[in-house]
Amino acid sequence: MRVEPPVVVEEDRFFWDGVKEGLLLLRQCAQCGRLQHPPSPMCPTCGSLEWSVRQMSGRGTVHSWIVSHHPSEPDEAPRIAVVIDLDEGPRFVSNLIDCEPDGVLNDMPVEVVFVDVDSVRLPQFRPVSR
Amino acid sequence: MTARPRAAVVGIGQTEFSKNSGRSELQLACEAAKSAIDDAGLTAADIEGTVTFTLDTNDELALIRSLGIEDLKWTSRTPFGGAGASATLQHAAAAVKSGAAEAVLIYRAFNERSGHRFGQPMQRLPSARTNLHEPYGLLTPPQVYALWYQRYMHAYGVTNADFGLYSVVARRNAATNPKAWFFGRPITIDDHQRSRWIVEPVLRLLDCCQESDGGVALVVTSEERARDLRHPVVAIEGAAQSSVVDGDMSFNYYGDDLTRFVEAEHTARRLWQTTGLVAADMDVAMIYENSSPVVFYQLEAYGFCGPGESRDFIAEGHIDLDGTIPVNPHGGLLGEAYIHGMNNILEAVRQLRGTSCNQVQGAQNVLVAAGRSAAILGRC
Q1: Domain total for chain B?
Q2: Nearest to B376 by CA among B356, B352, B343
Q3: Active site residues of B
């Protein structure tokens, strides 16, 4: 499976640093507490430029999903791409693993797992019973 | 109807729509522009402004040097691609009504099949957002958009075969449009269901727009001046945009409700408010469709039917040529060509002039909806 490594920019360096440590970190406004994902330089609620990070529980549910085939590499194994509703509120785009396409259900509970994919460590999600 | 002075579309022009134009994007832009200026009965010297997309590769100076426009007074560009197609009309009308430019040339031209193909992985600048999407296999527009549409399917029990209802209508219209790539080639729902998956379980090949080479152009001036020109006056009754917080080009994974197209709802409200017109006043709807599901979203956003009702609305024939609101009589971006939505505006003008090959009789008001932008064109 081919994954282009992300070209980290100033706003998401903390995120990828967290992933290396096995942590799912989101940007939280140091002034008003808003969780801002994807991260931005300025808080749209209060205008603050000061940020802290908050560790997510890694639990959530599948909001929507597709099967993604690589457009020009037909022999590559397909992946399931998902939008996750994190338990803490924000949405998070990821992959669903350890699940066949015909087993995916909207709103099914999932949990994060950190996987090395084509030498890139990614937070992905797998089904979990609740 | 508004009493304010309006701008009007007085010229339209295009190249042929193909898969391999055999010439440069700049030449396509020149040919389409010259055709539109000629159609208006104007000369290059009359053009005082230009409008195009930020994504268009044809720079203004290169174009005016070829066309022979001596001195340009206005340039502007609309961001994010095809969802801003109708914003070009808003830009041109703003220039005309403010006096910044008396006549404005709108153009869009590309070799989007023989050159850079939009169906392949997108080339976007590194950003926190792309870093959080692309590594997960969201590389092409169909993948990106399908992840939005799947929630709609779940919410309303809509299947891929339901989306195919639109594809059949688009290809039926294209089949009787000699300028359409798919002229003479209608499809059945069985053809749709036999076409290969592009993004399971949402999009098959026959749900997706084409990749096309070609160019289109329009000339916009004041309604007053339009009355002295050669064609029936096609006024820009209203034009509006919406870009919302957390939105992206033309999708949004982070908004509250993925079953709705919020930008299109905002755009609709602004159009109805500024023109005094309502959905029931529209005789034809041109709807931007890079793939079939976005027609479902926009039919609902503009109030032609209620939330989740598009499947039945289309199945009952409402968007057919003889239906209550014919959609994309030229065959749309699936059937005619994908000139980034701009060919939809040309068909709106033809419908109002009464010169379309698939003419809706007596068309007075045409909606040109492009997702984050929309306009109403009306025959005066």
Answers
A1: 1
A2: B352
A3: 288, 338
Is residue B336 within 8 Å of residue B356, measured between CB atoms? no
Locate the chain A residue with the closest alpha carbon to B119.
A71
Task: Return d(Cα B208, Cα B204) in angstroms, integer.
Answer: 7
Q: What is the pLDDT of residue B13?
A: 98
Delineate the domains of chain A, giving CATH numbers in brackets.
Answer: 10-127 (2.40.50.840)
CA distance B288 to B281: 19
What amino acid occupies position B214? G
**Chain A: closest CA distance from residue B313 (Å):** 25
B199 neighbourhood in chain A, CB within 8 Å = 66-69
Q: Among residues B60, B65, B50, B53, which one has the least CA distance to residue B105? A: B50
* Side chain identity at residue B16, one-letter code: E
Q: Is the dihedral of CA B32, B26, B339, B89 positive or negative?
A: negative
Model-level pTM? 0.96
Backbone phi and psi for residue B265, each to the nearest 5 degrees, phi listed first = -65, -45
Q: How far is CA A47 from CA A37, B103, B286, in A?
A: 15, 41, 40
- Residues of chain B with Cβ-Cβ distance to A89 below 8 Å are none
For residue B373, give its domain range.
7-116+209-379
CB–CB contact A106 B140 (8 Å): no
Torsion of CA B17, B20, B21, B26, to 10 degrees: 100
pLDDT one-digit tens code per residue, A100-110 = 999 999 999 99
> Complex ipTM, two decimals?
0.96
Q: Note whether residue B332 is domain-resident.
A: yes
- Report the 10 Å Cβ neighbour count for B97: 15
The type of residue at B241 is Q
Q: What is the pLDDT of residue B1?
A: 47
CB contacts of A15 in chain B (<8 Å) are 128, 132
Cβ contact, residue pair A63, B121, below 8 Å: no
